[in-house]
Each structure stands twice: as C-alpha cells, then as structure tokens.
Amino acid sequence: MIPRRNRNLIIKIIFFCSALYLLSSFRNSQDSSPDNLQGSIEEIFEAPDSELEKNNVDSKIHNEIDIANAKIKEHEENKKEVKNIVLEPPKVENEKVVQEEKDKWREAEDKKDKEEDRIKEKEEEDKADEAQNFAILPPKNPDGPGEMGKPYKVDKEKADNETKAKIEKGWQNNAYNEYVSDLISVHRSLPDLRDEWCKAPDRLLPKLPQSSIIVCFHNEGWSVLLRSVHSILNRSPENLLKEIILVDDASDMNHLKMDLENYMSQYPKVRIVRAPERVGLIRARLLGASKASAPILTFLD
C-alpha cells in the first residue's frame, strides 16, 4: 500500500504531465481550421499528432476542390450567356422602313439594268445598220423638231414679240424661216429615199475611188450650213470621203468668219476656202475644184 504522501506526489506528477501534453497539442493545431479545434479534451488526447495533420491537409484539399468547381461552374454559365447573346437575332425597330429601302434599291437596280440593256440594243442596232450599208441611220430622237424630214411649224400669231422679230429677220436674210431651222438638230434624221435595188447587199463595188465634196455658200444661216456639213460626215462612208471643201463666196456675216473657223477646226476632213471678192456660183465651184485632192469631185449647193 502506497503511503498517503507518496500518493499525492504521484497524482501531482500525472496532472502536471497531462497539462504539458495539452499545451503541446494546442500549439501544433493552431494552423488548422477552427472546426478542427472544436472537440473535447478527450478527443485531442486520444488522436495522435499525425492524424490531426492529415485531417488538416484533407480539409485544405477539399476546400481547393470546391473553389475550383465553383469557378468552373461560373465559367460555364458565362459561356452560355455569351453564346445566347451571339445567337440572338438582331432586333429591327421598324421593319417597314427597312423594307421600303430594300424596295427602292431593287427598283433602282432594275432601272439601271433596263438602261444598260437599252444601250446594248442600240449599239447592236447601229452595228447591224452599218453592216447593211444604210446611208441614213434611224433617228436618235424621233420626236424632235424636223426629225425624219417632217415639217415643224410655229404659229406666228401666238408667238411673243421676240420670236416674231427672229422669224422676220430670218426671212429678210435668207428668204426662209431661220428661227425654225435653229430649232432643228444638226444631226437630224432623214428618211432613206434610195430605191430598193440600191439597198440590196453587195450592190456596190468592193473598191471605189475617194471623193472631194465641194459646198459653196454666201451669207448662209449658221444652223443650215452646220447641218449640211454634219449630214455629209454622218452619211458618207469614211473610206470614200476624202474631204469637204467649204467655198465662201465673200460672205460678210460675223458668224461665218472666226466662229466658223473655230467650229470646223475640230473636223480634220473639213477645209474652208475663201474668195477675196464675190465671184458667183460657177467660179466658186471652180475655186473649190482647184483646191480638191480626190479623183472624184461632188458639188453640193
């Protein structure tokens, strides 16, 4: 039997050792989560140090896995939202306005296509006419004044004073209505008056000599003279037309001086010969013939 004194000493030693062990366990578990610190003194006393550290590591791993799973889930949700935004069809506030703009664009495109087709048809018609050796091409503006040789009349009674004065001046200078002549295009169309026998294919010789066309004038009206020149240029085969010689029989009107020289300078085949004094029709023709260079002479008055 242990004496009372020794028994008290042994109890004190056991109590002291237990207190030291508790302090040591508390310090080792400071880095772990607060949940692991909860528990009774008996659980801490019974669990060894290695088991506590293992529980702490497992807890950290589980926490990291939960965080990673949460981020992955958030990323997937963000991808779904972006995908929904991209695939969502655009909203049209006013579909009627958009449809009207589309209709206008289609109408403009159709009009452009029709105009291009019309131009192509016209070019093909001109080529066909040229291939058939038409002397006179179809009118470009069939409704214009004087087209196809149709008369164009102006009611003098209904005309204003300025128009009446121009009509009177034309009659005094040239004995015809110069006012109406100025309204007719210099490229006006004319009907083809040739006989059908002349229009037959291969009717002309394959090779013909060139011709010099001589036109005599004296104080001629501006539009009449220009229309005569353009009629020759437009209706004469280029390979047969050598030149056009305009013989001025001493005209004194201003528009037949420098204005005529400047206008005809743009046509290389047109030449102007001027008589120093009034010589009359026959001598004017002879003057033009002396300046001609083609083997064939054609006189137009």
Give your account of this protein's structure.
Helix content is 55%, strand content 8%. It has helices at residues 4-28, 34-37, 41-46, 49-87, 95-131, 161-174, 178-183, 196-199, 222-235, 258-264, 281-291, and strands at residues 211-217, 241-248, 270-274, 296-300. The protein has a four-stranded parallel sheet, sandwiched between helices. The longest helix is centred in the N-terminal third of the chain and has 39 residues, at 49-87. Residues 31-48 and 131-136 have low confidence and may be disordered.
Features:
single chain; 301 residues; alpha/beta; four-stranded parallel beta sheet; 11 helices; 4 strands
pLDDT averaged residue by residue? 77
Mind describing the biggest β-sheet?
4 strands, parallel
User: SS-based structural class?
Assistant: alpha/beta
The secondary-structure element order is: HHHHHHHHEHEHEHE
**Which value, in Å, is the CA radius of gyration?**
56 Å
Count of runs of 4 or more consecutive helical residues: 11
E-strand count: 4
Protein topology:
Layout: H1 4-28, H2 34-37, H3 41-46, H4 49-87, H5 95-131, H6 161-174, H7 178-183, H8 196-199, E1 211-217, H9 222-235, E2 241-248, H10 258-264, E3 270-274, H11 281-291, E4 296-300
Short synopsis of the structure:
The model is unreliable at 31-48 and 131-136 (pLDDT under 50). The chain is rod-shaped.
